[in-house]
Design a protein that fits this description.
350 residues; alpha/beta; inorganic pyrophosphatase (n-terminal core); Diaminopimelate Epimerase, Chain A, domain 1; 6-stranded parallel sheet; 12 strands; globular; binds manganese (II) ion
Length: 350
Amino acid sequence: MYAETFDNQSIATLRQQVSEAQKIVLLSHMNADGDACGSILGCTLLLDQAAEKKQSVVPILPNGCPKTMEWLPASGRILSGERERKRCETAIKEADLIVCLDFNTGSRIDFLQDALAGAKAFKVLVDHHHNPAREQFDIVFSDPSISSTCELLLWLSVETWGRQYLNVDVARCLYTGLRTDTGGFAFSCSQPSCFDAAALLVSYDIHPAEIHNQITNTFTFNRMMFYGFALSHRLEIYPQQRVALFSFSIDDQQQYGVTGEDMEGLVNYTLMMTEIAVGALLREEPGRTKVSLRAKNDVNVNLLAQELGGGGHTKAAGATCPMPLDKTLAAVKRLLGVEGQEPMKNLPTA
Ligand SMILES: [Mn+2]
């Protein structure tokens, strides 16, 4: 079971807020991943029951549910901030209770952050990123040492309501975040509670193999061809500094018809090389460049991401730089100590 104990007062407040609220809004971050989608949908299904259907429970993601997560139970209920901005802002404004999941500060919900900041609702944060902006919330449940927000939400719900609201749909959602945030139980899972959570969720008759298939085997032809292009033409390797990085212009992405979603996971290819300790992926968008950083060993990429105005976890972090690709690339190379170095020549081409 989960070793950290929740503060009794906070649990009592949460229980009371949920039972009294008439309009509940759930929020998670831009470019939602498995943990964001799993936690927002798992929480929706939990609160539907805790609220006894007399209240409305509205899940909102700034740019909607990614296609790769549409198989999750209740995904059709997610409102997209981009597609229905007015409706989302009204829901946030009128809510009595807002639960924020898997992000640590308002800026992670991008253009919806002002609506959140201005909302009169009671605000709860459930998250596992470092340095939560506590002043933006009324209660904070935060533990950076836990595997995922889905795991934290599971223990929080058990503490608050017991197991009465757990069922196969809730379990599928929460297992998804547990699985994706640990790379299939490969990292961020050194606490036994992570496997206790998996065991508890599996007891609700979910099928890990089916969820694995939904999460992993999702490539389109375009995406696979793009990966080939990325590995042969857009990968720079600096063996001496143990650094590898990908960088993609807007043109590169248009040529293959791929988006940021298609690049999910590509940055991890850098760390698959034994010689590499830090990996980066840069992806240009109009007016800005997104940076993802990954590390093995003791390199703390959260600190590097903070230098770029971003943040995240010690082994996985990111930032959005308001600069074109070339300027961002120069800044990242400076941070990684490979500025002015010659990358290894791209390896044997047929
Ligand atoms: Mn997460």
